[in-house]
Amino acid sequence: WRGAAQLADELMARDAFAAGLRLSPEGAKLADELGLPQSAELSWAIRNRAIRPRGTFHIQGFIDAGGWRERAHVVRRSLLPKPAWICAQTPWARRGGPALIAAYAMHIARAPLWALRAWHFNRRARRKSPPRRRI
């Protein structure tokens, strides 16, 4: 387990590794023994994953973006995903042409509602954790 914790450190996934271990009482004990951190925000998000709305990862990506170019890239990926994704979400878009264009239009029209729901979800998650220190 120490090796797994070290690997999580190298992958910058220590908090996620710790939160995953803490899903069970035995794992929580092991996480404490390994000196892994507790992340109230991540633990809350995991416990509430079934109600996590569409767009939460995009909102977080936008928040974490390093500048306006990165943010623009997140917005573009959010609004204009690959056609395969649109077709997986909207099977009738597989007909192509006007159907695919209509599916994209529907996706873009729904985006503000998804973004608002995702923002509220992420805000609730942040309230469950101590304030982050900016460096």
Number of strands: 0
Strand coverage percent: under 5%
Let me know the largest β-sheet: none
Morphology call: elongated
- The class by helix and strand makeup works out as mainly alpha
End-to-end distance: 30 Å
Helix run count = 8
**Uncertain ranges:** none
The average pLDDT value, as a whole number, equals: 86
Which radius of gyration do the C-alpha atoms yield? 19 Å
How much helix is in the residues? 55-70%
How many domains make up the coordinates? 2
Which sequence of SSEs, written as H and E, runs from N to C? HHHHHHHH
Describe this structure in words.
The protein has helices at 2-10, 14-21, 25-33, 40-47, 56-64, 68-79, 83-89, 97-127. The protein is mostly helical and 135 residues long. It has two domains: 2-38, no CATH class; 53-127, no CATH class.
